[in-house]
């Protein structure tokens, strides 16, 4: 594989050691698989970010541990610090290229829905679709065309199943996207907040009269 991420073994698993490697620009991680023993490792944060951007969430790449052995892996889980927006821990899963695996593939909407021009609102409900296939066949994304959707229309998993080259394990009834009518924001030429203000003023005036 073209993409290679370097990793170092991580022997000291104490919290203080983990905090230290993070300060040094590394991300603690675990390498595991069905045919190998779990092994704590650490990777450079900058290199990890570059790899994720290059191969995507479900992409395959080589994890080179100390230059001794390369493992064909994919990222199974990423933990992120919500405040610093930094990776705090990664799970690397060594894949068997001859066995099917389950994966979640991101959904991307394409086209412009006529219903939106009619005043409707496109509501994207399902952001990932579950699939089962060989590791090398995992799609980077699944595109869903909304060009034929008018107000009240929707697209479910069943509608795109035949368009995807791998086996979809998500339920047919799950709705991916729908075009909903927007709630009336104005009534009698007034916005809801303006109506509320007038009602409040009228109530105050009534109280003063009493």
From TrEMBL:
Q: Which InterPro entries match?
A: Rbsml_bL25/Gln-tRNA_synth_N, Ribosomal_bL25/Gln-tRNA_synth, Ribosomal_bL25_b-dom, Ribosomal_bL25_C, Ribosomal_bL25_long, Ribosomal_L25_dom, Ribosomal_uL5_bac-type
Q: Where is the composition biased (Polar residues)?
A: 177-189
Keyword RNA-binding annotated: yes
Q: Name one GO biological process term.
A: translation
The segment(s) forming the Large ribosomal subunit protein bL25 beta domain are 101-181
Query: What Pfam families does the record tag this protein with?
Result: Ribosomal_L25p (PF01386), Ribosomal_TL5_C (PF14693)
Large ribosomal subunit protein bL25 L25 domain mapped to chain residues: 5-92
User: A GO molecular-function term, please?
Assistant: 5S rRNA binding
* SUPFAM superfamilies listed in its UniProt record: Ribosomal protein L25-like
Region annotation (Disordered) ranges: 171-210
Which N-terminal residues, if any, form the signal peptide? none
Keyword Ribosomal protein carried by entry: yes
| Acidic residues bias spans | 194-210
List keywords of the entry alphabetically.
Ribonucleoprotein, Ribosomal protein, RNA-binding, rRNA-binding
A single GO CC term for this protein reads:
cytosolic large ribosomal subunit
What is this protein for, i.e. what is its function?
A: This is one of the proteins that binds to the 5S RNA in the ribosome where it forms part of the central protuberance.
- Quaternary state and interactors: Part of the 50S ribosomal subunit; part of the 5S rRNA/L5/L18/L25 subcomplex. Contacts the 5S rRNA. Binds to the 5S rRNA independently of L5 and L18.
Q: Tell me the protein family, please.
A: Belongs to the bacterial ribosomal protein bL25 family. CTC subfamily.
In its UniProt entry, what is this protein called?
Large ribosomal subunit protein bL25
Q: Which organism is it from?
A: Halalkalibacter okhensis
